Amino acid sequence: MSSKVVAASDRLYRLLLHVYPRSYYDEYSTLMAQTFHDMAAADYASHGMCALARVWFTTIGDLAISATKEHFSERSGRQIVSQKSIMALILALVFSIITGYVDLTATETYAPMSCILVFSFMAGFIQPKGAWRWALLIGLSICISTFVGLAINFNFADAPPRFPITLVVLVIPALVAAYAGVFANRIFIGWQGRPTRLS
Question: CA-to-CA distance for 181 and 2, rounded, in angstroms?
């Protein structure tokens, strides 16, 4: 059982590493994945699920800060930081926090699911470039918030799933919603660009 939980955590972490810039991912992802595996396996073996949740809590905070820093560092080197990209990143982080909080406090599943769909759509509409990143961040917010809630012994409004790692499937509707936002953006831009007819 322990090997399955750690293996699932490894897969999720490797997926999350894709939020880093491509060059950074290519250079460091293998080492980072191995370091995470060693930490997660040791903590889970010695102290169980709560220890693994604490590892995730620390890891997510570090990943959010360092990935943002690497993106800004790479872009400032090329001098193409767009205001829309910065706004989309900030919004995606805010949307993720709201979605996670709603999931921890809501008793109905439609509330957090609505947050995922609406927020992912908005992020994809605002900044179509890299829409999968916003979807990944928002889609994983429920999985991450559940791990954080377990780590801090949060009083869940509804019992959390036995294996929170299974919540990673929520990335799928987030991706669909984000690319629906991209599609809506394209239609909106096309509609704005149409010449007006004079009567």
Answer: 39
